[in-house]
Specification:
It is a single chain. The chain has one helix at about 265; strands at about 1-5, 5, 25-30, 30-35, 35-45, 50-55, 60, 70, 75-85, 90-100, 115, 120, 125-130, 140, 150, 155-160, 160-170, 175-185, 190-195, 205-210, 215-220, 225, 235, 240-250, 255-260, 275-280, 295-300, 320-325. The longest helix is centred in the last third of the chain and has 5 residues, at about 265. The chain has three domains: about 25-100, Immunoglobulin-like (Sandwich), CATH 2.60.40; about 115-185, Sandwich (Immunoglobulin-like); about 190-325, Sandwich (Immunoglobulin-like). It is built from one helix and 28 strands.
Length: about 325
């Protein structure tokens, strides 16, 4: 200060403070993933700041210092942060910082499945259980009969005879995989009946109503005679117990059934002499070619009548063994 009488000086330390301009900086985690992807942004700016403005690149913004943002759709996003304070403002932009895609972190799928049962008589209901691994978005089942399913664990009804190849294709962001297995559907077990044409007679009427998937059949009357008629009439030369076999043929399978007819019982004019067939499953075979079978013996649980030569001739003792046919191992 200068005047007529001289001058004077006064000094004030730190009297005026000039604020430094802020420098914007930030980090984000995670920066990649499948939608919806939640990202945490952390402000790492320096300087004096009083305001933060975030632009997340998808049309959304925030004024929070450390925001979290949810990216709901796939895409590549550029993020911008602007910080402001007494010393001014500063911005930082990170191009293509956030990558949102189903492909991120995806694992290559491997198709696997189980099925129950894998064989049986038509109509056959089969339960399929997916056991695939990896990142999977879709399941496509092909049942080999012209039908398909997109369910993960479908059930399918096979109505026709055949050997079907079932294929499962699973697909995801990292690729696809297929697996195939077979189901064998045999003709329905044959049901046939027999009765003498006249009480006590030696001529027997055989009746068979084939299902739609049976194409041909063959009767073996147990006395060396056979027939390919649907409903044959057969005359036995002598009385006795015989085993009757009916073999039916379908597209790729056959099924046998056995029954016993006591002709001596028939002569006594008692229709209960017919023992209903014992049915068992058989192994799959080629069309038109009979299977090889082994025979096991199986007695009735309770006899309804006895042979004339049974001790005491009393009801209750099993009169004879019926035969059931099993596939040879």
């Amino acid at each position: 200060m200068i005047g007529p009488h001289g001058s004077d000086t006064e000094t004030k330390t730190s009297y005026i403070e000039v604020a430094a301009a802020p420098v914007a900086a930030f980090s984000a985690s995670p920066t990649a993933g499948a939608p919806p992807l939640s990202v945490l942004f952390t402000d790492e700016s320096t300087g004096s700041m009083t305001a933060w403005t975030w632009d997340f690149g998808d049309g959304a913004t925030s004024t929070v210092q450390h925001p979290a943002h949810l990216y709901e759709t796939s895409g590549v996003y550029t993020v911008r942060l602007t910080v402001s304070g007494p010393g001014g403002s500063n911005s930082v932009t990170k191009s293509e910082l956030i990558q949102v895609s189903p492909d991120v972190g995806a694992v290559t799928p491997t198709a696997r499945f189980t099925l129950t049962p894998d064989s049986g008589a038509a109509p056959l209901s089969v339960q399929f259980t997916d056991q695939s691994s990896g990142t999977i978005a879709t399941w496509v089942w092909s049942f080999g009969d012209g039908r398909s399913s997109s369910a993960q664990h479908p059930t399918h009804l096979f109505t026709d005879v055949g050997i079907y190849t079932i294929t499962l294709k699973v697909e995801g962001a990292a690729g696809s995989s297929t697996k195939s297995q077979q189901v064998r559907v045999a003709p329905a077990l044959p049901q046939f009946s027999a009765a003498p044409t006249t009480p006590g007679g030696m001529t027997i009427d055989f009746t068979f109503n084939p299902p739609a998937n049976v194409t041909s059949w063959l009767w073996d009357f147990g006395d060396g005679k056979s027939s390919s008629e649907q409903n044959p009439v057969h005359t036995y030369a002598t009385a006795g117990l015989d085993t009757v076999r009916l073999t039916v043929y379908g597209a790729n399978e056959l099924k046998p059934s056995l029954g016993a007819w006591d002709r001596g019982k028939a002569k006594r004019a008692d229709p209960s002499g017919w023992i209903q067939p014992v049915y068992t499953n058989s192994a799959p075979v080629d069309a038109g070619r009979p299977s090889e079978f082994s025979v096991c013996q199986e007695k009735p649980a309770k006899a309804q009548w006895v042979r004339p030569d049974s001790p005491g001739g009393q009801e209750g003792a099993p009169p004879f063994a019926t035969q059931s046919v099993l596939p040879r191992a």
